[in-house]
Amino acid sequence: MPDAAAHLPFFYGSISRSEAEEYLKLAGMSDGLFLLRQCLRNLGGYVLSMVFNLQFYHYPIERQMNGTYAIAGGKPHCGPEELCEFYSKDADGLCCTLRKPCNRPSSIDPQPGVFDSMRENMVREYVRQTWKLEGDALEQAIISQAPQVEKLIATTAHERMAWYHSNISRDEAERRLYAGAQPDGKFLLRERKENGTYALSLIYGKTVYHYRIDQDKAGKYSIPEGTKFDTLWQLVEYLKLKPDGLIYYLKETCPNPSARAQRRLASLNADGYTPEPIPMDTSVYESPYSDPEELKDKKLFLKRDHLMIDEVELGSGNFGCVKKGVYKMRKKQIDVAIKVLKSNNEKGVKDEMMSEAHIMHQLDNPYIVRMIGVCEAESLMLVMEMASGGPLNKFLSSRKDEIPVSNVVELMQQVAIGMKYLEDKNFVHRDLAARNVLLVNQHYAKISDFGLSKALAADDSYYKARTAGKWPLKWYAPECILFHKFSSKSDVWSYGITMWEAFTYGQKPYKKMKGPEVISFIEQGKRMDSPPDCPPEMYKLMNQCWTY
Ligand code: ADP
Ligand code: MG
After folding, report:
1. DSSP code of 368?
2. Is pTM, for the whole model, over 0.85?
3. Pocket of ligand 1 from Cβ distances under 6 Å
4. Is 100 in a helix, a strand, or coil?
5. Atom of ligand 1 at shortest range from CA of 449
6. Domains with residue ranges and CATH for the chain
7. I need a surface site. Which of 75, 136, 148, 350 has the fewest CB within 10 A?
8. Per-residue pLDDT tens for 467-524?
């Protein structure tokens, strides 16, 4: 989660006022010389430090709840960069316009601030407590869900936290704190019955102290005379780092015995719009076999009478078609997609489908379509988890206007997580393309179609195809086409093409060029142009994927 200003050369991160003044002095103290630094008091805020008439001026920039940034009394802007851009043209109440950025010396990176790690801890704790994840699963969830979780945290996150005890009385709070060990800094937060305000109760030296939490007119929370925060959650995280007026800092959670019961699915946005569930809250985040009861029945071949096949076709290909269905497990029924092999097919195609099944059988990741099993009946069938949103390219091209580019970034990040998993397991996909990324919903993508995939032998770093087949040349790295060599590196190349498809909202790569023309285009060192409105960081990344 980089800072919104991290890319600005005149952003210094978390430096003090006097350090800022030192830098401005070193840079010559000309009128309109300016730099940007992180605000130490306000989460997500900045301070603009500048010079006029040999004097220093420091303007706090606040981040509002709706995500915009503004200097007190000034106009809101969508980011710190846009704000600086604006004040470089119009002083609008500042001492003068921003004229010359005081850039960081090239040897110095922005100073990471206490809030950076706090934000990360908040997301980490939230994901851990809400979905009870640990280890790799926790790390993956954090990476893929940080933007959504940050949004949730902004509003109702405290309700999910173990330290939140809803509306218990002062006496009950004391009873809970005195129960068991009583280390300094053991705390809980509760809602006060009187008027919907909150209080913090804290043990120090075997005594419980209670602090009222004030809320100002703008809705910000603070301990009387303390730092103000947009959310209770931020207040608690901050007080874990420094006492800020309390007798001691918050150290140990006094857990609410009924906190588990408060788990909710997606929370409501302020405008009452219900967002789609985030990946962890869907039924396909974990394998249906993650339930030990269901695992008992796990076999590669499924019983035909547990499978109900709908007439609805989800898609089709050379092999036959993909149908919708329901598979009956021990405790639950799950929606499935069934790849049905065309009847009386030659043997080769059947082998191919079995090879696809054997690959999928070994994979288990939230961002990869899972196989439930194979069923041999009226024809050979591959039974998979359902991803009802369909292929990414179609999804994006049909809903261009509704889907912001940040949503595309989010989905491509999930694809990256799935591909990293594949690489770690030593598999090459060989057919990564937007058509083979399926959506569970607008915010949840899974990699599918393992028809061309291969498991690499333990000591091999690539797979060598004996003969070329019906290959998706536009998605292939030069070494695939020239030497038939396939590796995780060539999957990275395909990932770049998939990114390009995604950021163009489902256009065809290399326009009308034919496969062989694409090869000479690449050999000449040329690459596709940036999709319109594609964030430059994303275009840079796809070009890196296309490193020869
Ligand atoms: P092919 O090897 O022919 O490309 P795919 O595995 O890509 O076959 O599947 C073809 C189509 O079937 C997909 O584009 C999609 O529309 C549909 N489909 C495949 N798997 C699923 C699934 N798990 N959930 C929903 N639809 C699916
Ligand atoms: Mg496909």
Report:
1. B
2. no
3. 314-315, 317-319, 322, 337, 369, 384-387, 390-391, 435-436, 438, 448-449, 451
4. strand
5. 6
6. 17-101 (3.30.505.10), 162-258 (3.30.505.10), 284-385 (3.30.200.20), 390-545 (1.10.510.10)
7. 136
8. 988 899 999 999 999 999 999 999 999 999 999 999 999 999 999 999 889 999 999 9
